[in-house]
Task: inverse folding
């Protein structure tokens, strides 16, 4: 039998070409099974973007990895320096490398704790009606320096707090109608307390709202 005849060896003739794909499929299945047994996700199962990011991050030097991690996090929303430092620590970036990268990002204005704190106060007070005390606590947990916290929270004065507390009570007042007066007062004061308002201010605002409601009804 010649080399040109259909009955040639699997490696050389048409029969060999037919068996090639079956052998390739078996090899891919075996590779995926081995990857799963090792606790990893098969490369073919990952999104192309995820594979590229994972590969680039694993192969990059610590400084490049740290910068890429920070830029990715900052793309979603502003972050304090401490939030980024915590993220780098979780990714096992050496502390000296992390500090160098964070300082550089501060120098170019990508990290600005003062601006972050000011924007946080403006947003959380306007949207959720949080008091100065609650805002201060939130910024401290994000690692913002005390002087920057004080500067940011100063945007909200006593009148702003009172107005925000009244707006919160007005929104909840209708839902408590029909309840005993003491129950209504307790619920409304508790709602303000959870947003950081002092007991004195909360009671004063709630009493005023209930009195106004009673006068409107007569």
Result:
């Amino acid at each position: 039998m010649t080399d040109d005849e259909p009955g040639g060896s699997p490696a050389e003739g048409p029969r060999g070409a037919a068996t090639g794909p079956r052998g390739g499929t078996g090899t891919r299945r075996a590779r995926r099974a081995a990857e799963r047994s090792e606790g990893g996700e098969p490369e073919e199962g990952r999104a192309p973007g995820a594979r590229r990011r994972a590969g680039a991050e694993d192969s990059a030097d610590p400084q490049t990895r740290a910068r890429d991690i920070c830029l990715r996090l900052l793309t979603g929303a502003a972050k304090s320096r401490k939030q980024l430092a915590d993220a780098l620590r979780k990714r096992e970036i050496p502390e000296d490398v992390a500090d160098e990268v964070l300082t550089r990002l501060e120098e170019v204005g990508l990290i600005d704790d003062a601006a972050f704190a000011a924007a946080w106060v403006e947003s959380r007070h306007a949207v959720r009606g949080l008091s100065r005390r609650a805002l201060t606590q939130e910024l401290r947990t994000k690692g913002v320096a005390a002087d920057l916290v004080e500067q940011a929270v100063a945007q909200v004065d006593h009148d702003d707090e009172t107005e925000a507390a009244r707006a919160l009570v007005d929104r909840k007042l209708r839902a408590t109608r029909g309840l005993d007066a003491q129950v209504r007062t307790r619920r409304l004061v508790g709602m303000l307390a959870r947003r950081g308002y002092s007991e004195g201010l909360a009671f004063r605002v709630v009493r005023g709202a209930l009195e106004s409601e009673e006068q409107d009804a007569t």
Summary: Residues 1-27, 29-44 have pLDDT under 50 and may be disordered.
